[in-house]
Specification:
This protein has 78 residues and is α+β, with helices and mostly antiparallel strands. It contains 1 helix and 3 strands. It has a 3-stranded antiparallel sheet with strand order 1-2-3, covered by helices on one side. The protein is globular.
């Protein structure tokens, strides 16, 4: 039988149910998304930008979801 540690012992397990955009991004002033694009061999490519309201909403909701699951700095243990 496989024994699993609690999600508090391994906070990354809490991220399993997060719906996140497919690329890394910066959300600027809740109105602009800068997508960081990488090649298959991890080279940074020219970033994309959008003010599309659906993309902005997706990224804003993703940020809130991540912060809701975050571990307080004072509580984090390695």
């Amino acid at each position: 039988m496989i024994q699993r540690a609690s999600s508090s012992a391994f906070p990354r397990r809490r991220a399993s149910t997060l719906a996140l955009p497919g690329n890394d991004f910066w959300l600027i002033d809740d109105r602009l998304v800068r997508w960081n694009i990488f090649s298959g061999d991890a080279q940074a490519l020219e970033p994309d930008h959008t003010e599309d309201p659906q993309a902005v909403k997706l990224c804003a909701e993703a940020c809130r979801s991540v912060w809701d699951l975050a571990t307080e700095h004072a509580d984090y243990r390695i």
